[in-house]
Amino acid sequence: MSDNATFHAISHLRREYTRGGLRRKDLPDTPLELFERWLKQACEAQLPDPTAMTVATVDEGGQPYQRIVLLKHFDAQGMVFYTNLGSRKALQLANNPRIALHFPWHFLERQVMVLGEAEKLSPVEVLKYFHSRPRDSQIGAWVSKQSSRISARGVLEGKFLELKQKFQQGEVPLPSFWGGYRVKFHTVEFWQGGEHRLHDRFIYHRDGDGWKIDRLAP
């Protein structure tokens, strides 16, 4: 297939969004209530990785970067994820804590976008979560200097076996270079697909102790 034919084929890929709308009268006062409801429905629908979210950060030159991580906790204080503190995302957050999250629940024809600032979790919070992980995942945290260049996958596999032997007795210690972040959000947008591309979009902006809600054009 030629390049032009390929472009023609994908340019015509589309479908109607028919699962239902989102109306102002149905919105709760806070975005966390709606987010919790939508996440619960995503889990009940057995979507693959319902807690997967895109994390977007920006480097010193203004270049955006995105990657997928898993949401591990959320409450009124923020949304939590864990990572290697030497990773590219962590280094970028140290320079610029502003961050964007995105939840792509395509099967439910929904998206949620979150804007806020990331702050490091306390050592107590990190340790508690670290020891709740499967043991092999704890060892895996020791293996990789995330985002660094490696020569082959065998390097990782060899290091994993070495550390599995080293930590075969007792608890796996928490690596000093492993931690987590809480995203303190100030803006949350909810997107619900609609027929004829007339999607429903509502955005919550923090306003003092409450929230201001606006409808956005699709």
Describe this entry's structure for a reader.
- The chain has about 220 residues and is α+β, with helices and mostly antiparallel strands.
- The protein folds into two domains: about 15-125 and about 175-215, Electron Transport, Fmn-binding Protein, Chain A (Pnp Oxidase, Chain A, Roll); about 130-175, no CATH class.
- It is about 30% helix and about 35% strand.
- The protein has six helices and nine strands.
- It has helices at about 5-10, 30-45, 90-95, 125-130, 135-145, 155-165; strands spanning about 50-60, 65-70, 75, 80-85, 100-105, 110-120, 180-190, 200-205, 210-215.
- Strands 1, 2, 3, 4, 5, 6, 7, 8 and 9 form a nine-stranded antiparallel β-sheet that branches.
- A hairpin with a 7-residue loop joins strand 7 and strand 8 (about 200-205).
- Helix 5 crosses helix 6 (about 155-165).
- The longest helix is centred in the first third of the chain and has 14 residues, at about 30-45.
- The mean pLDDT is about 90.
Summarize the structure.
With 218 residues, this protein is of the alpha+beta class. It folds into 2 domains: 152 residues, Electron Transport, Fmn-binding Protein, Chain A (Pnp Oxidase, Chain A); 42 residues, no CATH class. The protein contains 6 helices and 9 strands.
